[in-house]
Amino acid sequence: MRRIITATVHNRSGVLNRVTGLLAKRQFNIESISVGRTETEGVSKMTFVVDVEDERKLEQLSKQLNKQIDVIKVSDITDKQIVARELAMIKVLTTPQQRGELQAIIEPFRATIIDVSKESMTVQITGDSDKVDALIELLRPYGLKELARTGVTAFTRGQQRQQTEMKPYSILN
Amino acid sequence: MRASAEPKPTTDTKPIVKTGADLLVEALIDQKVETIFGYPGGAVLPIYDALYRAEGSFDHVLPRHEQGGIHAAEGYARVSRKPTVVIGTSGPGATNLITGIADAMMDSLPLVVFTGQVAKSVIGTDAFQESDVMGITTPITKHNYQVQDLEDLPRIVNEAFHIASTGRPGPVVVDIPKDISATVYEKDVQSEFHLPGYQPTIKPNPLQINKLREALLIAKKPVVLTGAGILHAGGSEALKQFVENYDVPVTSTLLGLGAFPGDHHRFLGMAGMHGTYAANMALYECDLLINIGGRFDDRLTGNLKHFAPNARVAHIDIDPAEIGKNVPTEIPIVSDAKRAIDKLNELEPAALDHQEWMEKLENNKQNYPLWHNESEDVILPQYLLRKVHQFTKGEAVVTTDVGQHQMWAAQYYTFNRPDRWVTSGGLGTMGFGFPAAIGAQIAAKDSTVVAIVGDGGFQMTMQEMSLLQERGLPVKILIVNNQALGMVRQWQEKFYDERYSHSIIETQPDFVKLAEAYGLHGYKMESVQEIDEKLDAILNNDKPAIIDCRVVQLENVYPMIAPGKGSHEMIGVMKP
Ligand SMILES: Cc1ncc(C[n+]2csc(CCOP(=O)(O)OP(=O)(O)O)c2C)c(N)n1
């Protein structure tokens, strides 16, 4: 199952290494990681998209992350109301004649062209991963010269539908 | 700009010049450190200079190899239950510590390891004796730091001690660039800390405690498994009370030995790969398994598919990540082991309805005890271990290396008291046993300390004999000498058709002469008669000794759960 996990961490040197090393050592399958500062000085937020086999493995992941001294809070926000975004830049092969056609393709995605050269064009798109995937597939037939994605970063929405918090640890007080 | 309100100190005496290293030393004194296991080198010269200035503040133990030093620190930590300081220089000093750090991580030992680092200005340039200590130690430490700023040093030291010794104990590395320890500082620095991401849960959830008790009251076949968590928590007395309140049978992991008295009539013996039949069958057949402070290591469980197949599992552990990691757990209790047992003991004791089960276990104990070959002439290793127990009245601190002798020690040296058993369980580190005995002897000055080692493992760290010579530490080194890497040989015999590939080592030093070269007494024993007549006196005097006991080469450790098998599929349960 694909889960979106966020972790707020102390922004100390080595924390990224510790967290990614831990995920590798315990054989968690990471699709993407994005890291950035937050509104609080010294605190960063990591967003992981992981593919885990089952609930037990997911629980291990959360516990192992929580165990790290510099990890302040871990949340699985997959089942919450969230806004998740990723940014991708796609360099597509284009002849000048095809530019109009491509413009029409990217338009509904609200993507923008940020660079144009004789034989290529770079498109920037932001959105959830499915939307990014969809655009990439549409552009693929033209020939993808280069592709870079930031990985997902996500927030819970300001307002949540009534639902229980992430499976609480009844074992913790 | 406002002028400082603080009046400038007007004193004629020259201010005492202090460096970062002095700050470190002061922090160690604040932490009440008595013993340091360290080895100097370029990047820690400022620290060693500060130690020189602080002469008399610590007992500094200088091993002859950093690995020996850190294993000694582990022995000290295990026996004293105190966070223990290790110092090594950058580069090779730090890398020589790695095995010990990994070992302490696996066995939850509270070490605070200071490594020197090249100066900040050259970090990352492959400077002389630079190694990426942070990178190397991240996966094998509970936490690690590189000090970036002198002003952080006292806080980091305090955090390191706190983290190493609270919650689930473990090693913390503090990497200190040389320029930081050499910098002269003047102003006062902060040493308070706040760790919002680290708040170990030490008190059990009362609801879970009640659930456990309810499960216990309806269980027909309960069993308690003791792990080292009880020892770290000092929970042995409480455990004994609990066991007697409910009259439940007890088994133990390798590292949990001594948490419950080995000679107690409710003790089934150790469980796991070389555990007793009674213990392993109890785990297999129980309907309630109460694991207190163990982590369901694969050497304990055997094939997980067959582990406690009919049991409800309750697991008390201070580390939530251990609960449910290997074995699905119905009653999870995150807590310090002692506090959880205390809470259980506060509830009214009750009689359980488990008569049949207790009889069955008793029968197993009687009918399938540990067995070994016997001889009136040559020395059987099991016999030797029983004699060691007898001559030390079961009171010695016993450390072991890794291999057959370790398993025989676990089986035959019955531990009746906590914190007397020091062995490398999780990592299985050869070379651990003898240096660990040095640390144990320093921590337990008046105890008899016996290092039970194989001829293979002893040769990995035997240079530390210098420490016995230097300090007159009365450690007894008992070499269970089968002229083989016995445990490897046993596996080759059983699982590789006796193809003894590089596991028989007949060329050995003359251990008696070696002892003499270090100014120690060396003895060689080749017969039962010699053991019976001489060993007692050697173990019970106040001098160090090296006892080279020639034992039967082809003995195997039994019973055994073969790799991949379940705990009910033991081999070698009965004498053929
Ligand atoms: C550092 C290290 N290297 C290799 C091993 C693998 N190993 C496990 S037991 C063993 C044999 C140990 O032989 P010895 O010390 O003579 O003890 P014995 O088994 O004969 O009692 C070996 C090589 C290990 N545990 N640790």
TrEMBL record, chain A:
Give the domain of life.
Bacteria
E.C. number = 2.2.1.6
- Family note: Belongs to the acetolactate synthase small subunit family.
| Alphabetical GO biological process terms | isoleucine biosynthetic process; L-valine biosynthetic process
Q: Does the keyword NADP apply?
A: no
Annotated ranges, domain ACT? 4-79
* Parts of the chain that traverse the membrane: none
The pathway this protein participates in, as annotated, is: Amino-acid biosynthesis; L-valine biosynthesis; L-valine from pyruvate: step 1/4; Amino-acid biosynthesis; L-isoleucine biosynthesis; L-isoleucine from 2-oxobutanoate: step 1/4
Q: Name one GO molecular function term.
A: acetolactate synthase activity
Q: What does this protein do?
A: Catalyzes the conversion of 2 pyruvate molecules into acetolactate in the first common step of the biosynthetic pathway of the branched-amino acids such as leucine, isoleucine, and valine.
EC primary class: transferase
Catalyzed reactions per annotation: 2 pyruvate + H(+) = (2S)-2-acetolactate + CO2
- Species for this entry: Salimicrobium flavidum
Quaternary structure, per UniProt, is: Dimer of large and small chains.
Tell me if Amino-acid biosynthesis is a UniProt keyword of this record. yes
Key words of the record: Amino-acid biosynthesis, Branched-chain amino acid biosynthesis, Transferase
Q: Which Gene Ontology cellular component annotation is one that this UniProt entry carries?
A: cytosol
Name it. Acetolactate synthase small subunit
Name the CDD domains for this protein. ACT_AHAS
Automatic annotation (TrEMBL), chain B:
**Note accompanying the cofactor annotation:** Binds 1 Mg(2+) ion per subunit.
- Enzyme Commission (EC) number: 2.2.1.6
The molecule here is called Acetolactate synthase
Protein's organism: Salimicrobium flavidum
Start and end residues of each Thiamine pyrophosphate enzyme N-terminal TPP-binding domain: 19-134
Q: In which pathway does it act?
A: Amino-acid biosynthesis; L-valine biosynthesis; L-valine from pyruvate: step 1/4; Amino-acid biosynthesis; L-isoleucine biosynthesis; L-isoleucine from 2-oxobutanoate: step 1/4
Which keywords label this protein?
Answer: Amino-acid biosynthesis, Branched-chain amino acid biosynthesis, FAD, Flavoprotein, Magnesium, Metal-binding, Thiamine pyrophosphate, Transferase
Q: Which InterPro entries match?
A: Acetolactate_synth_lsu, AHAS_TPP, DHS-like_NAD/FAD-binding_dom, THDP-binding, Thiamin_PyroP_enz_cen_dom, Thiamin_PyroP_enz_TPP-bd_dom, TPP_enz, TPP_enzyme_TPP-bd
Its recorded reaction(s) are: 2 pyruvate + H(+) = (2S)-2-acetolactate + CO2
**Where does the Thiamine pyrophosphate enzyme TPP-binding domain lie?**
401-549
Domain (Thiamine pyrophosphate enzyme central) spans 209-344
One Gene Ontology biological process: isoleucine biosynthetic process
Q: Which Pfam families match?
A: TPP_enzyme_C, TPP_enzyme_M, TPP_enzyme_N
